[in-house]
Write a structure and sequence with these properties.
The protein is 91% helix and 0% strand. By secondary structure, it is an all-alpha fold.
Length: 44
């Protein structure tokens, strides 16, 4: 029974990892090259 649980947890785990990487990469790449003070005045 333990093996069945491990296999069922593999597909959802991979999907979560892909979404987490994409979500973390987005906000990390934007502020990395974007200034918080400059963005406030340039966004308007």
């Amino acid at each position: 029974m333990a093996a069945s649980d491990s296999t069922a947890r593999t597909p959802p785990s991979a999907d979560d990892a892909a979404e987490a990487a994409a979500g973390m990469a987005h906000p990390t790449v934007v502020p990395t090259n974007f200034d918080p003070e400059d963005s406030s005045g340039r966004e308007e």
